[in-house]
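Design review, sub-item: ligand-bound model
Attendees: FS, YL, KQ
YL presented the inputs for the flavin-adenine dinucleotide complex:
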Amino acid sequence: MVMLRSILLKLSENKGFANWVITNGTTRRMSHRFVAGETLDEAIQASRQCNDAGMLVTLDCLGENVATPADAQKARDTYLGIFDRIAQEKLKANVSCKLTQLGLDLSVEFCEGLVLSLAERAAAYESFLRIDMESSIYTQRTVELVKRVRAQTPCVGAVIQAYLYRSESDIHDLLSYGCRVRLCKGAYQESAEVAFPRKSDVDGNYVKLMRTLLPSGFYHAIATHDPHMIAETIRCAAEKKISKDDFEFQMLYGVRTDIQRQLVCDGYRVRIYVPFGQEWFPYFMRRLAERPANLSFFVRNFIRS
Ligand SMILES: Cc1cc2nc3c(=O)[nH]c(=O)nc-3n(C[C@H](O)[C@H](O)[C@H](O)COP(=O)(O)OP(=O)(O)OC[C@H]3O[C@@H](n4cnc5c(N)ncnc54)[C@H](O)[C@@H]3O)c2cc1C
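KQ shared the predicted structure:
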């Protein structure tokens, strides 16, 4: 299983395979299991359905590792438009984006300027900008950039991955700046030098970090579909008398909708990560890698088509 995950994550960086998957009608259709569509209109429709079901949304226009400043600026403009559209449509939604989509590979200063303009747009609408966390080669730059932007406009938050050894220290650092954190397990291929190789250790660290975040007095997001992590979070909130309104669960579009609905029924705040856009390939591959059953679903549908 570990080997399969590794292969899928390696393939997620392969341009030839990406072209084949993206241009194939069957795989494009299958991507809809995890991706709301290729257009903002489709994502707005999916967001409206989530809101109608009592769930909040964070919208992500898929894309990463842009090669030119013009591409990064284009992504920034898309996100500015998303904030405007969320406001026009009166959706209960905010925005998530990746720094490599905003030019982090090109220049930190350039990227920071774009993020600042997005954070200011978020502030103008009393909304929120979440900076997704990518692979560990970007962690330090991402944490530092979020802290700097946050010092100017507080409506920006970070993501911390429980599989990294450094995450406990990053959380204490971010909390000292009053930063809101989304806690997830981590979706990239990482070496044992930087990340816990064993799932049980990742899960143990997740619970430990969740127990640090929840009573910190800031509004955090517990992003997981793991029933055990969710139960531990509910237990911790009850123990520490933390109100259901003082944190939120977050889950991915199309994943464990049964748990999403149950949490809403139980009175918890649930936010759905709704990704859309044409650059869905790496995101789709990471979702396949998370669960081998997804791969057999993919292969079965492909053979049938
Ligand atoms: C809102 C949100 C934002 C995220 N942002 C980031 C980020 O910025 N950076 C980052 O590295 N990672 C991010 N992730 C991904 C995260 O790191 C994990 O890879 C992913 O959530 C799977 O971990 P899990 O906590 O659900 O636990 P797991 O132990 O992986 O899964 C627990 C159970 O959840 C279900 N499940 C999990 N994944 C899938 C799937 N793909 N398809 C079907 N069922 C599934 C299965 O039932 C599985 O048994 C995000 C996740 C969420 C929910």
